[in-house]
Amino acid sequence: MIIYKRAADLAAYVEKQRKAGQTIGFVPTMGALHEGHISLIAISKRSTTLTVCSIFVNPTQFNDPKDFQKYPITLEKDIPMLEKAGVDVLFLPDVAEMYPDGTRDLETYDLGPLETLLEGKFRPGHFQGVCQVMRRLLEKVRPDQLFMGSKDYQQCMVVRRLLTILGLPATLLCCPIIRESDGLAMSSRNLRLSPGQRANATAIYRALMLIKTGYTAEPVPTLIENAIRILESADFRIDYVSIADATTLEPIPGPSPSGAVALIAAFQGDVRLIDNMVL
Questions:
Q1: Are residues 40 and 146 in the same domain?
Q2: CA 217 to chain centre
């Protein structure tokens, strides 16, 4: 595995490989890797001939500076995991490399309603930060295929819109959520949970399963109320429980012909967890 810390060096290497006939797969991460990330790498390796992974904790997508400061950094574990998984290239920049002119007065993107719904509403500025870093990464790697996890359902929608805005030809594949044996979605933030909080956290999965099981049989408001009850009984502080149209994320009053998704964001202590389930 080759490690690059300078964007120009990475771009030159990847372009050389592209001209040699390689197809490029890209897995962007913020580190603190787990089996969910490794599953993305495995899919990339089956789909392309050169897999690039990045680890960069992007400051511009944290609307809470304390959350940024607490984000786990585990490079001593992450790098051997990537080597074992067969990653060809790791991009490991620092903030100055990604934002040489600083992080103030950066470009903004028209994300439409995605910026005011759910994560957009509760984390103002978050998706602009996602777009800012993804634009820089995509312009350096210029992948044929981009692999992201479906746990960040709304983020996948935002990145798909960004690809259209930028006119980049990369194909985005939103890959299945990888869960622990008790249903908890794998997340880097799980590392910050105490043992008691980790036990409580499975309530998110139980709430989603309750919604999925009752989706066509019970009224949407009842499903949401029952899910909230499950979360509150596990000491969650809830940002939202939503049953939404799968293509717009607008809340729906009942089963939707275009598909639906249940989405939850809630705090266990000071750790914010998100999860979703397609209905």
A1: yes
A2: 31
Residue 149 and residue 29 share a domain: yes
Q: Which residues contact 69 (CB under 8 A, 6 or more apart)?
A: none
Q: What is the largest CA-CA distance in the chain?
A: 57
Please identify every residue annotated as catalytic: 37
Query: 244 is in which domain, residue-wise?
Result: 188-274
In tens, the pLDDT along 116-138 reads 999 999 999 999 999 999 999 99
Residue ranges of E strands in the chain: 2-4, 24-29, 50-55, 89-91, 145-149, 171-175, 236-245, 260-268, 271-278
DSSP 210: H
Last residue of a domain, one of 121, 145, 175: 175
Tell me the pLDDT band of 255, cut-offs 50, 70 and 90.
confident
pLDDT in tens, 74-88: 999 999 999 999 999
Same-domain pairing of 25 and 73: yes
